[in-house]
Amino acid sequence: MSYNSTFKDRAGQAAEAKQKLLDQYKSRPPVDEKVAAERAAAAERKEAMKAEKAAAKKAEREAAVAAAEAEAAKSVVVPKTEAELKAARDARYAKRKAKR
Predict the structure, then answer these.
(1) C-alpha angle with apex 40: 37 to 41, nearest 5 degrees?
(2) Domain ranges of the chain
(3) Mean pLDDT value across residues 69-93
(4) Within 13 Å and on the Cβ side, how many CA atoms surround 56?
(5) Cα separation of 35 and 19, whole Å?
(6) What are the pLDDT digits (tens) for 40-79?
(7) What does the DSSP 8-state code read for residue 10?
(8) CA 59, CA 98: separation in Å to the nearest integer?
(9) How far is residue 98 CA from its own chain's centroid?
């Protein structure tokens, strides 16, 4: 494209470029059905493996969360009742008295 090109020149160049691309596209060899089927099967296998891996990772994550929750449930301190607190206090008092 030169500095003094007209609209018709630019439109003609665009049409030539478009035609060249169409010719290149049409001159491509046709797609072999067998190769296309193999590619589709490979893509399907890859997708299935990806889904299986994601499911395994999700199950592992859920198991870890469940284990963490179980561990947290074990470490929860249950508050003692008034009677238990009084019994512990009395036992400490009796131990102190026994030392004297």
Answers:
(1) 85
(2) 1-29, 31-99
(3) 87
(4) 6
(5) 29
(6) 999 999 999 999 999 999 999 999 999 999 888 887 777 7
(7) H
(8) 58
(9) 65
Of the candidates 74, 65, 83, 24, which has an alpha carbon nearest to the alpha carbon of residue 57? 65
pTM summary value: 0.46
Q: What angle do CA 69, 72, 73 make, to 5 degrees?
A: 85
HEC assignment per residue over 14-66: HHHHHHHHHHHHHCCCCCCHHHHHHHHHHHHHHHHHHHHHHHHHHHHHHHHHH
- 34 vs 47: CA distance, rounded Å: 20
Q: Residue 49 is encoded by which pair of tokens?
A: 């493996």
Q: What is the mean pLDDT of the chain?
A: 91
